[in-house]
Design a protein that fits this description.
Zincin-like, about 180 residues, 3-stranded antiparallel sheet, alpha+beta
Length: about 180
Amino acid sequence: MFKQVENLCNEITSELKDQYPAIRAWTFKWNDRLRTVMGRASARGKYIELSTHSVRINRNTPDFITRIKETILHEWAHALDWEYDGGWGHGATWKKWMQRLGIPPERCFSSTRWLCALNKAHYAIRNGRTGNVMFYSNKVSPSLFLEAVEKNAKQGGEMEDIEIISLKTGDKIGR
C-alpha cells in the first residue's frame, strides 16, 4: 500500500512541479510520528508529508485511493498558496488553489472521515461501507456497540455495516 501511495504522490508532485515552478524546491516525505492527521505541509521546511501510521490504519477505508489523492492535493495546495500568494492555513487563497486543483475547498481530514489515533483510543467503530467513524474508544463495550448501531441506523446504515477497527494495525476486530 505504501508503494502505491508513494507512486501516486510522486506522479501528482511531478505534474504540479512542471505546471508550477515555484514549488520545485518542495519535497515529499513520510512521517512515522504523525498520529492525528493524514498529512501536513511545512513552509519552513518546504515539504509535504504523509503519516505512515494513518496510511496503515486507513488502508481498508472505502475509496482510500480517492481520499488519499485529495489529501495529497490538499497539502500541495498549501505549498502553492505559500509560494504564489504568501498565504497559509485554510483561508481564501488556499481555497482558490483547492478549486484550481479540482477538489472541494474544504479541510480533508476529519476524525469521522479518516481513522486517527485520538486521545489514546485503541479502537474505532465505523460504518465499513461509507468509512464514517462513529466512535473512538479505549475499549468496546456492548452498550457502545449498540449505540453505534443506533447512530448508524439513523444515518441509513445497517447493523452489518458496523466495523470495529484496531487503531494500532487498521485491522477489523471480530466477525
